[in-house]
Amino acid sequence: MAKPLLQLQPPLLLHARHRSGVRLPLTHAAAAHPTPAATQCQDVPTLVSLLRAGVSCARLNLSWGTREYHARSLANLAEAMKQTKRLCSVFVDTVGREVTVRRPVQFDEHGWPTQKGEKKVEVEQDQIITITTDPTAEPSSTLFPVSYPGFPEIVEVDHQLQFGRFLATGAEGASLYVLEKTETTVTCVALNSAVLDGLLTVMICHTEDFSGDFALPLLTEHDADCIKYLGSRFEVDFVNLSYCNHEEDLYAARSFLDSLGMQYTKIIERKSSVRNFEGIANSADGIIISRGNLGLDFEPEASAMALLQKRIIARCNQLGKPVLITRVVDTMVATPRPTRAEATDVANAVLDGADGMLLGAETLRGLHPLVTAETPYVSEFGSLRPKMAGSSMQLNRILLTHAPYMTKLESLASSATRVAEKINAGLIIVMVQSGRTVSLVSKYRPPMPIMAVVVPKLKSTRLGWQLEGKYLARQTCLLRGVVPMLAAPMSEGSGGARAVEPGLAWPGCVVA
Questions:
Q1: Which terminus of the chain, N or C, has less C-beta within 10 A?
Q2: Spatial separation of the C-alpha atoms in residues 318 and 394, rounded to whole Å
Q3: If one looks up domain 391-500 in CATH, what number appears?
Q4: What span, in angstroms and rounded, lies between the C-alpha atoms of 291 and 313?
Q5: Least confident piece of the model among 114-118, 139-143, 191-195
């Protein structure tokens, strides 16, 4: 049953799950600047509607907005979960090594940052543009002050740069060619015309080894401060590490996140991260394929991106690591329905074995964020997937590429999946203590939903008692086909009734 992920506001991303078939996480983002969608996507009634529609994961983006604004988003999400009695895991997306253009901002009545004065910057083809590290420089169509003071040191002549607003599409991105540089400036020529607005990010394209990645920190002070602040007041489950290109980066971040009880996912977005993918995938708790950023490093010819996506997804399936893709239905930024090509792209991702699709601009600043989350072809994908491919095909593919020997636990999980399919079970119930077993069952892609039952435990602290189990239950939301449920000690037989309530089972169905 496919689980879409949905991002509300750049701070808040939600992941909706389908009600039938195999769940697949799909992430949406909602309004990045003050439009009606921006306020509608943060208020409690809208979040309640989204949770009732199947949303199960929410992501905060630290690139834009204050920690107080993000805290308000999480407070509203907590209230929505309380009203709906539905679990929703929380992601935090870091700034990391992202370089941005310094532009003065002001805050609207909701606390959302907007650009002061003229919002849009028009760039003409063949126009000369200077990039400066001077923090006092006034930004204009010919002068871009950037946030990283060492920017000229990591850029070389003949490099190609991409400037664009967060999750840029179409004319919202400008390609620049580096002509010369000094200690504080980089002179470029624009390769295309563009209209730039909102938060402007910078990326160096087509680089084999980006030296700037070693100069920039993986976690900025702003990242660490926000993660600690939000984690101490709310419940954060995952941290998405941006621009992490080798395994060593993960070790430094792991100790910090482990101290806060958080897992992390890794965003694959540069050639170096693809080159070091094996070590990254083994260390991370999940993988996000940033197709937009990878498209700036890899040429689109010769189906490079298509083959790369298939290989990454296949390897994540073998490792049992959740994998999400981005840039799925960009046209829904302005239209209420996707193109046939986009629908086919989503279908191919499902057949490849992707665990989810991460929407961005569609709900970040799109005109139809809620419609995008409720698009019929998305909500029906869970039930269509078994018809298109079948569980056996994917199960056999994983088994054929698996190591000759399995652990006892994995052997049990794969056998349970095959038995459930042979007896035509409608539901698999897994009792969860660490999350490892339910992760392995999800790895083998059963065609029926998996109920992860977590029994909360009381833990003694210095100040009293603390209930544990909610973190574990929410973290299973990322797993394909898994529906987490917190269970209290109850009479025999009531667990089946609780499975019937959300439509996971029906009277008379076989449960494995």
A1: C
A2: 11
A3: 3.40.1380.20
A4: 13
A5: 114-118
